[in-house]
Amino acid sequence: MQRNTIGVISLGAVALALAAAVQSLFQESILLGTAYLLLASLAVPVVLFAFCAKCPDRDNCGHALPGKAAAALFSKRKCSPYTAGDRALTAAGLAVLLLLPQIWLWKHPVAFVFFWIVMIAAVTGIRAKLCPSCRNTGCPACGGKSRGTGSGKGR
Ligand code: SF4
Q1: Which end of the chain is more exposed for a tag (fewer CB within 10 A), N or C?
Q2: Domain interval for residue 93
Q3: Is 151 part of a structural domain of the chain?
């Protein structure tokens, strides 16, 4: 299967897992579900700003949407090594998106298991089909392998 097809499917799978989490949070309370949606709508642009906007592959993003969104929203950000601030913001954004809902999600076993099966399948697909050709050597998942280009080089 094509790299971008896997990338788009895996992004859709992550969205599906998050939708299951959102549904469970709304089952807990409307306030909780709404608060998470608001936090998530802030966390996504934070990750796009801190991580994707500096990615050397943002114009050739395997997931398509994040790279295009980062380039459109934060066009002045240049590809350069991630700073401690970039990493902290990225970690905070991902923690809000993926870890915060676990506080309540575990009480909904079907949604909890669905969330993690879908998430693990998505990450497995990304690791197998996207990571090997991704040029973002500044990504922690990259393991620091050099492929000639990377976030250490200017755009
Ligand atoms: S390839 Fe780059 S732009 Fe695309 S999701 Fe990964 S870090 Fe973001």
Answers
A1: N
A2: 3-142
A3: no
Ligand 1 atom closest to the Cα of residue 139 is 7
User: Measured in angstroms, how far is the CA atom of residue 111 from the centroid of ligand 1?
Assistant: 27
pLDDT bin (cut points 50, 70, 90) of residue 140 is confident
Q: Is residue 44 part of a domain?
A: yes
Distance in Å, CA 121 to ligand 1 centroid: 18
Give the pLDDT band of residue 3 (cuts 50, 70, 90).
confident
The dihedral sign for the CA sequence 24, 27, 30, 32: negative
Whether residue 24 lies inside any domain: the answer is yes
Q: For the CA atoms of the chain, what is the radius of gyration?
A: 16
When divided into structural domains, the chain yields a total of: 1
**CB within 8 Å of 94: residues ≥ 6 apart:** 43, 47
Rounded to an integer, the average pLDDT of 27-54 is 98
**What is the three-class DSSP state of 61?**
coil
